[in-house]
Design a protein that fits this description.
It is built from eleven helices and no strands. It has helices at about 1-20, 30-50, 55-65, 65-75, 75-105, 110-115, 120-145, 145-160, 165-185, 190-210, 220-230.
Length: about 240
């Protein structure tokens, strides 16, 4: 268990170390604020129009800054797109930390051996996981739709762009490794495979929520999550 968790920690650090901005560094707080405005504007365009919509002129207009500002901080569109992905990954890392902090907080209230031998305790634990997972999915679709769309666009672009592939691999890998770490603690029989199954189900529900313009069937989400988790946690 310890070796697997150490591996997870290394993957997490790998993702953080992969977040290396390529554009011109800002020397002053005001300049850094403008640079961040430009990247945020690029992310909004990515979510709305896809990667191909990111042009210097379009980003400058979206950010309400002079065109010269975008070319000052980013020498070309590829560098601007790459740094926008960096900012996106950095924000997502913060969301990831919060969510898994909540998961581990829930787990701390239970004894793993008791979960395994007592069906009633196990059902309460599963209900807690289901409620937490459903809340996460609904919050993502309602409040982070733009980020989900940007994620889809960036990962698709990484298939074509060799420079984005390392970060994309680390970004996706950390989601799997963090869930794998949690499942190891709960003693599921095949944590790596189980993590892939759960994340695939969650991603499907997230995309369905986007397609349905944020309309999500709460009972459907909980039913799917409960079924998946119940199967994984059978003693």
């Amino acid at each position: 268990m310890n070796s697997q968790m150490t591996s997870t920690t290394k993957e997490f650090e790998s993702l953080k170390s992969s977040i290396q901005y390529q554009g011109r560094k800002a020397a002053r707080a005001k300049s850094e604020h403008r640079r961040k405005e430009i990247l945020d504007a690029a992310l909004r365009i990515v979510a709305r129009e896809g990667i191909r919509g990111v042009k210097h002129r379009a980003v400058a207009k979206e950010a309400n800054v002079p065109l010269a500002s975008t070319t000052y901080y980013f020498k070309d569109i590829e560098e601007l797109i790459s740094d926008a992905f960096m900012l996106f990954a950095e924000k997502s890392l913060q969301v990831l930390d919060l969510f898994y902090g909540e998961l581990h907080g829930l787990l701390a209230n239970y004894d793993i051996k008791e979960i395994q031998r007592d069906a009633e305790v196990r059902d309460r634990f599963i209900t807690g996981l289901v409620d937490m997972g459903a809340g996460y999915i609904k919050a993502q679709v309602k409040f982070r739709k733009q980020d989900l769309l940007a994620e889809m666009a960036f990962l698709l672009e990484a298939v074509r762009d060799e420079r984005l592939k390392p970060l994309a691999r680390d970004y996706r890998g950390i989601w799997y490794s963090r869930l794998t770490e949690f499942l190891i603690l709960t003693n599921t029989p095949a944590p790596k495979e189980d993590a892939m199954l759960i994340i695939s189900a969650v991603q499907g529900l997230l995309y369905e929520g986007i397609i349905n313009d944020g309309e999500i069937d709460d009972m459907k989400i909980k039913s799917i999550l409960r079924r998946a988790i119940h199967i994984l946690m059978q003693p």
